[in-house]
Amino acid sequence: MFSNIAKPLEGKVAIITASTDGIGFAAAKQLVSDGASIMISSRKKNNVEIALEQLQKEYGVNKVKGLVCHVSKKEDRNHLIQETINIFGGIDILVSNAATNPTSGSVLDCDEEIWDKIFDVNVKSAFLLTKEVAPHLISRGGGSIVYVSSIAGVNPMPMLGAYSVSKTALLGLTKVVAMDLAENNIRVNCVAPGIVKTKFASSLTENESLSEHLLQGIPIRRFGRPEEIGSIISFLCSPSSSFITGEVIVASGGMTSRL
Q1: Could you give the CA distance from residue 183 to residue 190 in angstroms, rounded to a whole number?
Q2: Does Electron transport count among this protein's keywords (predicted)?
Q3: Measured between alpha carbons, how far is residue 103 from residues 35, 82, 115, 121 in Å?
Q4: pLDDT (tens digit, 9 = 90+) per residue, 122-142?
Q5: C-alpha distances in angstroms, 215 versus 22, 48, 246?
Q6: β-bridge mates for residue 242, sequence order
Q7: Diameter of the chain by CA atoms?
Q8: CA distances (Å), 183 to each of 87, 140, 166, 171, 253, in order?
Q9: How many angstroms separate the CA atoms of 56 and 71, rounded?
Q10: Nearest to residue 26, comparing CAs of 239, 226, 243?
């Protein structure tokens, strides 16, 4: 089982959502570097084309494909899954990374429309993708699912009320789906990154006074790098984590998360 340490994901096929930038792109790079064939996706065609060009140049046209996919749209999800099967012959791995956060402030100040959008993208799409992908993983004899949550899902952040709640919901989804799919040899785990230097988190990391304040709560005194999360995601998809399921790995530089 551990014979190919250099390429632990050789022969595996992965779908990674929101994978043209930030943590998703870093996960894509790590998975394909570890041997997987990958299908990247984003809701913007231009982003897919740019990321695809970079990845194919480094890893080859046959190992990396990409599609436009708005995870809240059923037709987009179905197309993503079917095209992955058509091109690569099956699916072994799902990395659900898509997320949105169009507001900030107290959870009680969140408008219903915004609340619905956050949960539609951050939680419902992860659930529906899991339902839609699971039969294909089962047909392959097993596989791995990884949800990308956040430190805010474990220890809510004051100005990210609704977002924090949605990311907490992913922790529960991880536990429940892991139990449901264990008998099918499908492992389900979750990564909860701390504050990582990405475009998504730029409002936190690029505001000098705010970033200085936030760094006081990070014992290693720096923000994370996308590749540090990508390597954890790939680990959770690999044989090296074959006895891990239903777990949440917090990667936050020491930010308070649990006892």
Answers
A1: 19
A2: no
A3: 38, 34, 9, 14
A4: 999 999 999 999 999 999 999
A5: 20, 33, 30
A6: none
A7: 53
A8: 28, 14, 27, 20, 34
A9: 23
A10: 226
Q: In whole angstroms, give the CA distance from residue 166 to residue 5.
A: 36
Look up residue 244 and give its two tokens.
Answer: 């891990």
Dist CA 13 CA 88 (whole Å): 7
From the candidates 25, 88, 163, 235, which is the catalytic residue? 163
Nearest CA-CA partner of 51 in 77, 79, 93, 19? 19
Tell me the C-alpha distance between 67 and 23, whole Å.
18
How many whole angstroms separate alpha carbon 20 and alpha carbon 5? 27
Measured between alpha carbons, how far is 223 from 202 in angstroms, rounded to an integer?
Answer: 11
Residue owning tokens 């799919």? 181
Tokens of 180: 């449901």
Burial tier of 91 (Cβ tally within 10 Å: 0-12, 13-18, 19+): buried
For residues 187 and 2, what is the distance between their CA atoms, to the nearest angstrom? 17
* Helix and strand totals (H; E) in the chain: 10, 7
Task: Please tell me the total number of residues recorded for the chain in this structure.
Answer: 259
Structure-token pair, residue 8: 């632990």
* Total Cβ atoms within 10 A of residue 236: 24
Confidence label for 5 from pLDDT (cuts 50, 70 and 90): low
Q: DSSP 3-state helix, strand, coil percentages of the chain (rounded to 5)?
A: 50, 15, 35
Residue 215 phi, psi dihedral angles, 5° rounding:
-65, -25
Tokens representing 94 are 């799902």
pTM above 0.90, yes or no: yes
163 catalytic per annotation: yes
Q: What is the pLDDT of residue 1?
A: 41
